[in-house]
Amino acid sequence: MSIKIENLSYAYEKNQVLCGINTTIHEGSLTALFGPNGSGKSTLFKCILGLCKGYGGKIYINGTDASLLNVRQKSKQIAYIPQTHNTVFGYSVLDMVIMGTAHQVSSLSSPSEKELRQARAAMEKVGIEHLSGRSINRLSGGEQQLVLIARALAQSAKILLMDEPTSALDYGNQLLILRQAEQLRNEGYTVLMSSHNPQHVMNHSDRTIAMFGGKIVADDVTESVLTPELIQKLYGVKTIFSESEHGKSIMPL
Amino acid sequence: MNSQKPETALKADNKHENLRIIILFALLAATFLISFSFGRYAIDISQVVRILLSPVFPIEQTWTPQMETVVFNIRLPRILLACLVGCCLSAAGASYQGVFQNPMSSPDILGASSGAAFGAALAILLGMSSAIITVMAFSFSLIAVVIVYFIGQRAPGKRIVTFILAGIMVGSIFSSATSFIKLVADPTNQLPAITYWMMGSLSGTKKATVAYILIPMLIGLIPLYLLKWRINILTLGDEEAEALGVSPSRMRLAVILCSTLITAASVSVSGMIGWIGLVIPHLCRKIVGNNYKYLMPASMISGAWFLLAVDNLSRNLLATEIPIGILTSFIGAPFFIYLITKKEGKI
C-alpha cells in the first residue's frame, strides 16, 4: 500500500496552505513529515484523508485516485491516529477500539462477534487487552495513544497516518509509541507520522519529508535529509549532530 | 489459551449490560400494570390483569363494566401516551447529546419546544379545537428546527456550535412571540389555557390521540434504535468519524431528523415536559455506560418508566391533578444535581 501525491495544492479561502506537493509514501516504510507549525503538515494529512474538499492535483492510494473513493472505501485503506483523544464521553477501551471496524458494519446494525474478535486482536497486538473495560478518559496519555493505535489496527487498513503522536506524552510514553510505530512498519504497515522532534525523526523514520511554507523542501531517506542546515531553515535553531556507537544525537547550540 | 480469556470476559461484559436493560424493562412492565390500579376509581391489580387479558383469552367476567371502561378508555390511552412521550423525549435527549458532543443537550436544544409552545399558543388564541392545537404545535416545532438547521448550515464556523447558537436564537424568538400572544390573549379563558398547556399534561388522553401520534413517533424511534451504535462514532467529531468510514453530515442529519420528529410529536400531545431528555440519559450512562448500543434502549425504557411513574404521582398526589411538567422539574432537577455530584462510575 503506497500513497502517491502529484502537484497537490490547497487553499483555505485565499490563504494558500499547500503548493505543488509531489511525493510518494513508499509501501512498508515509516516516513516522517517534518516541519514547523503552519508548514502544511496537518493540511496534507487532511487532504490524504479526504477531509479537505476541492484540493488541486491528484492523490493516489495504491494506484487509485483518492477522489474517486467514498468515505467507507477510503477508511478500508487508511487509518488515522489523531494527536490526542478528546471525546466528551468516557467510552471503555473495548468500545473505542471496536469503533475502528465501523466501515465493515452495516449502517443499521452493531458490531458482531467478528468485529469483536478483530478489536480484541488489535488490543492484544499493542498490549492493552488488560485495559479492555477501563474508561479511556481515565488512562494515561500513552495508554490513550495505544488505544487509538489499536483502533486503527482494528480498522484493518494498511496505511497509518499518525498526527504528532508523541506531542502530548512524557518521555517514556514517547518512546513506547515510537517503538510501536517501528514495530508496525516491520509488520508491513505503511506509516506516515508527523513530528516536530528532529531526534525522533532521526532515530525512528526511514524517510523524511521536510515541509516549509506549504512546500516540500526536502524528501529522501532520513540520513540524507536531516541536516543542521535543514533544522536551522525550518525552526531557526542552530544544532550540532554528534555520532556515537549508539547512533546520532542532535543538540541545539 | 491466551485468546480465550478476554473473549469470555467480553461476553460477560455484554451480558452485564443486557441484564441491566432487562431489569429496567421489568421495572417498566411492573409500573405499567400497577398504574392501572391507581386513581380515584381504584381497581384491584388482579382485576386489571384479567380485564387486560380478556380481549385475547376467554376469561370469566369478574369485573364491572365501569372497571372495563376505566381501564380501556381512560387509563390505557394515558398510560400508553406517558410511556411513549417519556421514551421519545429520553431517546431524543440521548441522541442530541451524541450528535452535539455535549452532555448538557436536551430535546429542546434546537428550539423544538419553543416552536411547539408558539404553535399551541397561537392555536388557542385563534380559538382552534384541541386537535388543531396539537397539529399547530407539531408543525411549528418542526418549522423551528428547520429554520435552525438552515441557519446552522449557512453560518460559517464549526457546524455543531452554529447549530446550538441558532437553536438558542430561534428558540428565543419563538419564546418572545409566545409571550406576546399571552399578552394579547383573553385573560379569563385563553391565557389560563395557554399557561396550562405550557405546564405539560397528559390528562384527557384519548385512544385516537395515541393512535395518530404513534405514527410519527415510530418513524423517529425505529431508525434511532437501529442507528444507535453509529451515534458513538458521531461523538468522536467529524474528522475521526470520516476517517472511520462514517459520513458525519449524513449521519447527523438522519439523527437530528428522527430526534426532532419524536420531540415535536411528544410536545404537541403533552405540552412542555422538561428534564426527561437531560436527566434520564445521564442516569442511564451511570447504569449501562456511554456506549449507545446499550444507552439508547436503556434511555428509551427508563424514559417511559420515569414519565409513567411521575404521571401516576401527578394524578394521585393531590385531589386536583398537578401538571406533569411541574413534577418532572421538581423531581428531575434535584435528581440531576445528585447525578452530577455523585462520584463517577456505574450505579
How would you characterize this protein structure?
Chain A has 253 residues and is an alpha/beta fold. Chain A has helices at 41-49, 71-77, 93-98, 113-125, 141-154, 171-186, 198-204, 222-225, 228-235, and strands at 3-12, 15-25, 30-34, 56-61, 64-65, 78-81, 159-162, 190-195, 207-212, 215-221, 239-244, 247-252. In chain A, strand 7, helix 6 (171-186) and strand 8 form a beta-alpha-beta unit. In chain A, helix 5 (141-154) runs parallel beside helix 6. The longest helix of chain A has 16 residues, at 171-186. By secondary structure, chain B is an all-alpha fold. Chain B has a single domain, classed as ABC transporter involved in vitamin B12 uptake, BtuC (Orthogonal Bundle), CATH 1.10.3470. In chain B, 76% of the residues lie in helices and 0% in strands. Chain B is built from 14 helices and no strands. Chain B has helices at residues 4-35, 45-53, 65-99, 112-125, 130-154, 159-184, 190-199, 207-226, 228-234, 238-243, 248-270, 276-288, 292-316, 324-341. The radius of gyration of chain B is 21 Å and the shape is globular. The model of chain B is unreliable at 1-8 (pLDDT under 50). Classes of the chains: A alpha/beta (253), B mainly alpha (347). The A-B interface holds A 46, 49-51, 71-72, 74-76, 78-80, 82, 86-92, 94-95, 99-100, 102-103, 105, 107-111, 116-117, 120, 123-124, 129, 132-133, 155 and B 2-3, 6-7, 9-10, 13, 98, 101-103, 223, 226-230, 232-233, 235-240, 242-247, 285, 289-291, 293, 344.
